[in-house]
Design brief:
4 helices, about 110 residues, about 50% helix, two-stranded parallel sheet, single chain, mainly alpha, 2 strands
């Protein structure tokens, strides 16, 4: 998380959109069954379940993204259907950039 925040604070990445791929959601499910997430995130107060735990982790990244538009996705390397929402995010970013460029050109 610290490294992610450092990257977000770089001048070169200022106000750039970020597609955050939170990989290995399947392994998180296995780990939570064996070990408490509080071992890694002592401040986590939610249940030992994959959905609230993964949302908590995602939110920690969002909190550190500062002024970036962030598009988080939980993925598993074995899940072939994950590509569609990721490409939707990429398309959204490109549309926003295109509209912003066109608007600046009109002023």
């Amino acid at each position: 998380l610290d490294m992610f925040e450092e990257i977000c604070l770089l001048e070169e990445t200022a106000r750039k959109p970020i597609i955050l791929l939170l990989n290995k959601i399947d392994l998180l499910k296995e780990k939570i069954a064996k070990k408490n997430i509080n071992s890694f995130f002592p401040e986590y107060a939610g249940p030992a379940e994959v959905t609230p735990a993964s949302e908590y982790i995602r939110d920690r990244f969002i909190d550190r993204a500062h002024k970036h538009d962030i598009y988080p996705h939980f993925i598993s390397a074995v899940d072939t259907q994950v590509v569609t929402p990721i490409w939707t995010s990429v398309r959204d970013i490109l549309y926003k950039k295109t509209i912003a460029s066109a608007t600046v050109g009109m002023l």
